[in-house]
Model the fold of this input.
Amino acid sequence: MKAAVYMGIDRIEVCDVPKPIVGDNEVLLKVEACAVCGSDIRIFHSGNNRVVPPQILGHEIAGRVVETGAGVTKVRVGDRVAVGADVPCGKCIYCESGIGNNCLENYAMGYQFAGGFAEYCLLNEMVMHYGPVHVIPEKISYEEAALAEPLACVINGMEKVHIRMGDTVVIIGAGPIGCMMIPVARLLGSTRVVMIDNDLKRINQAKKFEADEYIWSGEKSPVERVVQLTGGLGADVVITANGSSGTHLDAINMAGHRARVNLFGGLAQNTTITIEPNKIHYKEMVLTGSHGSTPKQHRQALNLIASGMIDMKKYISHRYPLENITDAFASAENRDGLRVIVKP
Ligand SMILES: [Zn+2]
Ligand SMILES: [Zn+2]
Done:
């Protein structure tokens, strides 16, 4: 089969590799769509200790079941299936508690397990048993279903900040993930959504998602503007959806009393920021993080898309065949669009 194989830093080769052999409790998917995530690009350029090359990346996957092992009952040949990233090991204390995104093993598709940038993708026994594998609701396409993975991560991040009716929610980062946070914040009761980015192009392309206020940090101080917008109080909720450490500090500085701040965006390893603990102390602020998603949240994401409450088609800007995977990566990296889909 044809696959885009990550060979090491800044090296991906599209080549023929053996088609996976399907064991008793395993399933083979013909990949129909696999979206490019910022983390794929980070692995491509900087490596990752969970990814040992040669490996097939890609964890926002949707496809059709073409083969099942004798022991498989969860899906059948011909089923349309969406697959998320984080695969619970099923054994550690966190998986036992239903929070497999905190799993001590931290397995994921496109990391330790071969991912979706290939003609076929094997769903191994652990993935089939504990992983985010769900039949795609009839109404939605493979492309939309592939985006259930990032939406599940957004749902996880939004659950952490306990949005209440009437809350002002600030999202720092106008990329596809930040833009997915806008409708989810609304569904959870936010009456004012503010979006911040330092890239004017990003701000302009995010306007179709209809936040109440867009702040270009190249023009004005986002902290000052948010404080002003909230009558000097600060935001109820702030979420970072970007990889810049300065914005993580801004997030704390623009939050109000009893605010919930989620440092959602991953930063480069060993990044540090200096915070003033008294700000958190006197404002009784809650500072949290979030990482990945659970299989339950992946199912919720699919249901949300199928219900029409979130129009995933609006988040897809480019499509590439597998042969052009490096163009797909470049396009996602240039920030000249939103989600980029690879169609093997
Ligand atoms: Zn992702
Ligand atoms: Zn585990």
